[in-house]
C-alpha cells in the first residue's frame, strides 16, 4: 500500500522511512480505520495497546473496549488522562517564546527525530491524510501512526475530517503528525512531550504520547496558528452559537476564555430545576438560593465548539468578524454530565450515534452501551475530571455548517467566591461591557481560575490557585498551543479586534459572583439577555462605569422576560457579604496581576496602539483613557 508515495511530496527522510517499512495500511474508509482500533482481531471485544520498551519490557499505554456505540479508550496512568500544560517543545530555529528542545534536553532534536523515523520504519503503520482546519478551509496534512494505535488515528481524522488520497490528488502536506509512544519512556522520563518542527512550508508534530489532547487536538491547533500567523489570520480558542429568541431575533455570540472558561457551556441550554425555575446563584455564606423564572429560553444552534477559524478569506471587511468551524468533529468534555437526562439531545447523540464514536476516560464494558455520565475512576477512587467523546459535528442538534458573522464576543473567567471575610478577585458582575482595548487586555492575560478540569497543573500553579491567585493562560487563551512569540500573537489579535469595529465585547464570570456560587448560570443568562436585545445592542443610558476600570461598564439594570435580575449580581460591591473594602481588595489583586503579566509585551515589536493600551493599565488609567484609544460600539 505504498502507491500514495507517488502522489505526495515528503521530506526525504520521511519518504525513506516509509519506503523502508514492510507493512503500511492506508484505510480506504473511516469504518476500516475504526475496525483497526481493536487490533489484529477486528472482532475482539478488548485490545491492549502495548509496546516493547527497552529496559521496561512490555508497557501498556492504553486499553480499548468495544461498546455498542463505539470504543472506550482508557489509560492506566492518571497522568495520561489529560493534557500536560508543559509538553510543548520547539525543535527549529524560527521565532518562539516556547521552550526549545535543545535548551531542555541539552542536544538538538535532529538525532531524536531520526531515531523516531527509524523506529516508525520498523513498525506496522497506518498512514492517513486529513485536512488540518476542517474539510472546507483546511490544509492537506498527513498522519503516520503505529497500527496498534488505530484509535488515535481514528480520533484524529474524526476531529479533522476523513479524506482519501484519491480525493486530494497530488499534494505536499502542510503538516505531518507522527506518533511514537515508547519514546515517552526511553527519552522523556515518562512525560507527555509533543515536539514541533517548523519550516515556512511544513509544520511537523512529533507526538510522544497517546492522549490526543496535546497532539491530535491541540497539536493541529498549533499548526493552524503557525499557518495563520504567516498569512495574517487567527484560529481563535472559542465557541460560537446562533441564538434565536422566542421573538425570532437572531444574534451570533462568540465566547472565548481560558480552559474551563465556559466555551462548551455557551452552546448548552440553561439548566433548570425540576420545577422549571433557574437557579442563578446560592450565597456561600448564608446558603440562600436565588431563583429566577424564565418561561421560554432561546433556541441555540451551535456554530463552533473550540477551534474557531477566522480565516482571511472569510472576512468581508464590513466591521464584523466572520468565523467558521476549524474542525469536523468536537472533542467534548462531559464532566458536567453526572446522570441520565441532564442533556437529552447530546446524550442521545452519544448513545445512539449513526456511526460508532471514540470515548476517552469513560467506563466501557464489552458489548454494552458506553454512557457519557459513567466516567472512569482515577486511582484515588474519584471520577476522572476529563471524560471526553469525539463526536462528528453533524450529530450535534441544529449545528450551523456555514460561516457566520459575529455580533457579540463574550469572554468568560472562572471566579472564586469573594466575601468581606475572604477577599479575592471574584468580584466581576454578571456581565460587563468593554471597549476593544479592554477586550484585548483580557485576551492577552486570559486568566484561568481554580479547579480546571481539562489540564494538569504544576505544583506552583496549584499552590497559587489554592491561595486565591491566578494563572495566565495567555494571548487569546490560545497561547498554550502557539509555537510563535507572544508579541506577534498580540499584534495579530489587536489588529483583529480593531478591524471588527461593529462587534460588541462583553465579560462574564462563571463559578462565582462575589458571595454567590453561580456555576455557568451567569453566562447563560447573559447570553439570553444579549440575544433579546437584538444583536447585543445595549442602551448607553443603562451603562455605568464599573468600580474597577478593568471591568469597563457595569449595567444598571438587566431585565429578562419582564423579570429584573437582582442589582447586586451586576455590581457585587453592593452585596452585603462583600462591600466596597473587599471589592477594592479584589480589584487590587486583579490589577496587580494584570500589570505583572503585561510588562512582558512592552518590546520594540509591539504595535504602538498596543503599547498605549498597556501603559494605561500600568498607570492605573480610567475607563475614559481606554475609550479614547478604542471607542465603544453599542
Automatic annotation (TrEMBL):
It comes from the Bacteria. InterPro entries: DUF4914 (IPR032583). This is Uncharacterized protein DUF4914.
Amino acid at each position: 500500500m505504498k502507491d500514495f508515495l507517488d502522489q505526495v511530496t515528503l521530506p526525504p527522510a520521511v519518504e525513506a522511512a516509509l519506503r523502508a517499512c514492510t507493512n503500511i495500511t492506508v484505510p480506504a474508509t473511516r469504518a476500516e480505520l475504526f475496525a483497526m482500533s481493536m487490533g489484529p482481531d477486528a472482532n475482539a471485544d478488548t485490545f491492549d495497546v502495548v509496546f516493547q520498551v527497552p529496559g521496561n519490557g512490555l508497557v501498556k499505554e492504553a486499553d480499548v473496549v468495544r461498546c455498542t456505540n463505539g470504543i472506550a479508550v482508557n489509560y492506566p496512568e492518571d497522568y495520561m488522562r489529560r493534557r500536560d500544560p508543559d509538553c510543548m517543545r520547539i525543535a527549529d530555529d524560527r521565532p518562539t517564546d516556547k521552550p526549545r528542545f535543545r535548551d531542555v534536553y541539552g542536544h538538538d532534536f535532529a538525532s531524536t527525530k531520526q531515531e523516531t523515523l527509524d523506529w516508525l520504519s520498523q513498525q506496522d503503520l497506518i498512514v492517513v491524510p486529513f485536512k488540518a482546519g476542517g474539510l472546507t478551509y483546511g490544509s492537506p496534512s498527513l498522519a503516520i501512526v503505529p497500527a496498534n494505535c488505530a484509535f488515535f488515528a481514528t480520533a484524529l481524522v474524526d476531529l479533522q475530517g476523513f479524506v482519501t488520497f484519491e480525493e486530494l490528488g497530488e499534494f505536499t502536506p502542510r503538516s505531518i503528525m507522527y506518533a511514537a509512544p515508547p519514546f515517552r519512556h526511553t527519552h522523556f522520563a515518562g512525560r507527555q512531550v509533543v515536539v514541533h518542527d517548523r519550516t515556512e512550508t511544513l509544520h511537523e508534530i512529533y507526538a510522544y504520547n497517546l492522549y490526543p489532547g496535546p497532539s491530535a487536538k491541540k497539536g493541529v491547533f498549533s499548526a493552524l496558528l503557525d499557518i495563520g500567523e504567516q498569512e495574517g489570520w487567527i484560529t481563535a480558542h472559542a465557541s460560537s452559537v446562533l441564538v434565536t429568541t422566542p421573538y425570532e431575533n437572531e444574534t451570533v455570540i462568540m465566547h472565548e476564555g481560558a480552559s474551563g472558561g465556559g466555551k462548551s457551556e455557551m452552546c448548552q441550554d440553561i439548566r433548570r430545576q425540576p420545577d422549571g425555575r433557574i437557579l442563578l446563584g446560592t450565597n456561600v455564606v448564608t446558603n440562600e438560593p436565588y431563583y429566577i423564572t424564565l418561561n421560554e429560553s432561546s433556541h441555540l444552534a451551535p456554530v463552533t465548539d473550540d477551534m474557531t477559524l477566522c480565516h482571511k478569506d472569510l472576512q468581508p471587511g464590513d466591521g464584523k468578524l466572520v468565523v467558521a468551524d476549524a474542525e469536523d468533529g468536537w472533542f467534548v468534555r462531559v464532566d458536567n454530565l453526572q446522570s441520565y437526562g441532564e442533556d437529552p439531545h447530546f446524550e442521545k447523540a452519544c448513545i445512539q450515534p449513526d456511526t460508532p464514536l471514540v470515548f476517552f476516560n469513560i467506563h466501557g464494558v464489552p458489548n454494552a452501551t458506553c454512557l457519557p455520565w459513567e466516567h472512569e475512576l482515577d486511582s484515588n477512587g474519584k471520577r476522572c475530571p476529563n471524560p471526553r467523546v469525539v463526536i462528528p459535528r453533524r450529530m450535534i442538534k441544529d449545528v450551523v455548517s456555514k460561516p457566520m458573522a459575529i455580533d457579540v464576543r463574550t469572554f468568560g473567567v472562572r471566579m472564586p467566591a469573594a466575601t468581606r471575610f475572604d477577599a479575592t478577585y471574584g468580584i466581576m458582575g454578571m456581565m460587563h461591557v468593554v471597549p476593544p482595548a479592554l477586550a484585548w487586555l483580557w485576551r492577552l492575560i486570559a486568566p484561568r481560575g481554580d479547579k480546571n478540569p481539562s489540564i494538569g497543573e504544576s505544583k506552583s500553579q496549584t499552590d497559587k490557585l489554592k491561595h486565591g491567585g491566578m494563572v495566565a493562560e495567555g494571548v487569546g487563551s490560545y497561547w498554550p498551543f502557539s509555537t510563535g512569540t507572544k508579541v506577534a500573537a498580540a499584534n495579530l489579535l489587536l489588529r483583529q479586534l480593531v478591524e471588527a469595529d461593529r462587534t460588541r465585547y462583553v465579560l462574564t464570570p462563571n463559578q462565582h459572583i462575589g458571595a454567590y456560587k453561580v456555576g455557568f448560570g451567569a453566562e447563560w443568562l447573559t447570553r439570553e439577555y444579549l440575544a433579546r436585545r437584538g444583536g447585543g445592542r445595549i442602551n448607553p443610558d443603562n451603562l455605568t462605569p464599573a468600580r474597577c476600570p478593568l471591568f469597563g461598564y457595569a449595567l444598571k439594570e438587566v431585565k429578562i422576560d419582564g423579570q429584573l435580575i437582582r442589582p447586586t449580581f451586576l455590581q457585587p460591591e453592593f452585596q452585603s457579604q462583600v462591600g466596597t473594602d473587599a471589592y477594592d481588595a479584589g480589584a487590587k489583586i486583579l490589577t496587580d496581576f494584570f500589570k505583572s503579566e503585561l510588562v512582558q509585551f512592552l518590546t520594540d515589536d509591539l504595535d504602538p496602539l498596543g503599547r498605549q493600551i498597556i501603559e494605561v493599565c500600568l498607570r492605573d488609567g480610567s475607563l475614559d483613557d481606554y475609550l479614547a484609544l478604542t471607542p465603544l460600539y453599542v
